[in-house]
Amino acid sequence: APATRGALAHASPSVRKFARELDVTLEGVTGTGPKNRILKEDVQNHVKQAMKGDGAARGAQTGTGLPAQPEVDFSKFGAVETVELARIRKISSRHLHKSWLLIPHVTQYAEADVTDLEAFRQAEKDKHAAKLTMLPFLIKAVCHAIEQFPEFASSLSADGNSLIMKQYRHIGFAADTPNGLMVPVVKDVDQKGVVQIAADTASLAGKARDGKLGPADMQGAVFSISSLGGIGGTAFTPIVNSPEVGILGVSRNEVKPVWSGSEFVPRTMMPLSLSYDHRVIDGAYAARFVVHLASLLSDYRRVLL
Ligand code: CAO
């Protein structure tokens, strides 16, 4: 509330001082003294009410300590139907809300020339036990990029004073399921080849769709990937999966004319959207990471180095 508002309320200087200390705006306090004068007890009751009453209940509902949006009677405007959210959507929406509020997000965009990788993938995709989609190539490339940019596999300590650098390389991926968004985790990506990662993602995505993921399948990721490439769209701003500090969004490839130095040539370009926690990652570091990742995807032999 504006600082001047409290000046209109009827209260003694000592009560005003007390209210200022508690950050209470007197205009919202009901006075019980003579001529509705606001007493110290009124300020105390006002604070108690806010802590115990409606405010706390609504804060618990959002899980953030912030009041929920006000109840609106939409039936005033037309017919409505109220549908209970699935349990998974309730859990993930609270987690997303917290991540969104706690993490100062920035999203860095880039494009990777995946012409050669896509040609290789098309030639190889049906020759192995699990179908080689783009996702396992992305997971492996991200893991490789993290070796040069290890802060993308870190978390802030709870007190915010130190960075926990993780030596393991588990990578999560967003999976769209009938029950809502789930993020299963491929373990030890640094120790696996793309074919093994493809088998893992296929099995985890199947378990996610069937509602059979256990807690261990969804824990321990150092970084996540959200691929909407199979659906479409040009770019988006993924929300970091707290306490991770980075997430890569992938949109649909597009064939574009790219200047080779002497002429325009058609190249298959993959849009990348890297969101990161700006408390941990600097903009220049994030830009270097995504440029490096794009270079790995444009010449996948670099992942072998
Ligand atoms: N550009 C163009 N086409 C792409 C592509 C891209 N970047 N990525 C995938 N595709 C196409 C390919 O054509 C592929 O078919 P072929 O292999 O036959 O060519 C097809 O999509 C298959 O992709 P897929 O989506 O079935 O498999 P995947 O391994 O790429 O993804 C999974 C698996 C589980 C990530 C995916 O099914 C899914 O759930 N995606 C949604 C994730 C999501 O909801 N993210 C948002 C989270 S925030 O709300």
Largest sheet geometry: 7 strands, mixed
Low-confidence stretches: 1-6
| Cα shape | elongated
What is the strand content? 15-25%
Bound molecules: oxidized coenzyme A
Number of helices: 8
Radius of gyration: 26 Å
Q: What number is the mean pLDDT? A: 91
Structure summary, number of beta strands: 11
Provide the helix percentage: 25-40%
Structural class per helix/strand content?
alpha+beta
What order do the SSEs take from the amino end to the carboxyl end, as H and E? HHHHEHHEEEEEEHEEEEH
N/C terminus separation: 58 Å
Give a short summary of the structure.
With 305 residues, the protein is of the alpha+beta class. The protein has eight helices and eleven strands.
Please explain how this structure is put together.
Strand 5 and strand 6 form a beta hairpin. Residues 1-6 have low confidence and may be disordered. This protein has eight helices and eleven strands. With 305 residues, it is an alpha+beta fold. 34% of the residues lie in helices and 18% in strands. The longest helix is centred in the N-terminal third of the chain and has 16 residues, at 87-102. The strands form three sheets. Strands 1, 4, 7, 8, 9, 10 and 11 form a seven-stranded mixed β-sheet that branches. The protein has a two-stranded antiparallel ribbon with strand order 2-3. The protein has helices at residues 13-21, 40-52, 54-62, 87-102, 115-124, 134-148, 194-209, 283-298, and strands at residues 105-113, 154-156, 163-165, 171-173, 175-177, 180-182, 185-186, 223-227, 246-250, 254-259, 264-277. The structure holds oxidized coenzyme A.
